[in-house]
Amino acid sequence: MALLEVNNLGKHYNGETKVLKNVNFEVGSGEFVSIIGPSGAGKSTLLRCINRMVEISEGSVFIDGQSVGGMKKKSLRSLRTNIGMIFQHYNLVPRLTVIENVLHGRFGYKTNLQGIFGRFTEKEKEKAFELLDKLGIADHAYKRCDQLSGGQQQRVGICRALIQDPKIILCDEPIASLDPNSSKIIMDYLKKITNELGITCLVNLHQVEVAKAYADRIIGLKSGEIVFDGPSKLLYQEK
Ligand code: ADP
Ligand code: ADP
């Protein structure tokens, strides 16, 4: 059984034209897959269906054998602890410190954030610091996130995703707002996570060259349909 199964997935917003059509693929444990395609192809919507940030209109998504589509609140919460999310605009809470943002990942989102630091055990804090250290930003632990550079904020985002020991990480254009140097650092980390921790990584990218350089496998989306699915080295002109 594959870790992620997407079967005949279709998605429309508000009954309008479908932005995903009959999407089928499976991803195994520890795979590093890049989803590429032009703006508007449906990459972001695809990730949003997988963690049920949006409702699935047709077909099904299974993670670890569990159907995501019909899940109620409680199962959704436990589903999301298995899924780390990384966003183009980092989605950190700007007025909180780096360490608080990382610990926040353990609560899931939409939690009351007042006094968050005190609510964690020493062990949890230790783990958060270890992650910050691995990502090279432990020195910034007590800074507010909005005082960090984009590349540093994205590293906080990676720590926040990792602290819940996810099985899979979904990255929505993680380097689209970063300069080439920071982009390389972030992509290297994502690759390392997959290789060393065996976490499955699904990364939306619009830069084909980056996808080819990092991903083992590429899924090409165009107007909501898969137009390529195979080893990165077999991809040439698809966009
Ligand atoms: P990509 O990530 O590849 O740029 P998206 O998944 O963001 O593509 O968008 C695919 C299509 O769905 C686009 O036409 C976009 O305008 C539309 N879309 C995305 N989000 C919404 C939404 N919340 N409501 C209505 N349409 C949306
Ligand atoms: P919106 O603000 O568009 O209504 P939501 O209410 O669904 O979006 O989500 C609130 C915020 O939390 C958004 O910025 C969203 O991207 C973010 N978010 C959603 N799911 C997760 C997750 N699993 N981990 C971290 N942040 C998340």
From TrEMBL:
Q: Which GO terms describe its molecular function?
A: ATP binding
**What Pfam families does the entry give?**
ABC_tran (PF00005)
The record, for InterPro entries, names: AAA+_ATPase, ABC_transporter-like_ATP-bd, ABC_transporter-like_CS, ABC_transpr_PhnC, MetN_ABC_transporter-like, P-loop_NTPase
Keyword presence, Transport: yes
Give the record's keywords alphabetically. Answer: ATP-binding, Cell membrane, Membrane, Nucleotide-binding, Phosphonate transport, Translocase, Transport
Domain ABC transporter per the UniProt entry, residue ranges: 4-239
| The keyword Hydrolase belongs to this UniProt entry's keyword annotation | no
Alphabetized CDD domains for the sequence = ABC_PhnC_transporter
Q: Which NCBIfam families match?
A: ABC_phnC
Q: Record's PANTHER family?
A: AMINO ACID IMPORT ATP-BINDING PROTEIN (PTHR43166), PHOSPHONATES IMPORT ATP-BINDING PROTEIN PHNC (PTHR43166:SF6)
Name of the protein = Phosphonates import ATP-binding protein PhnC
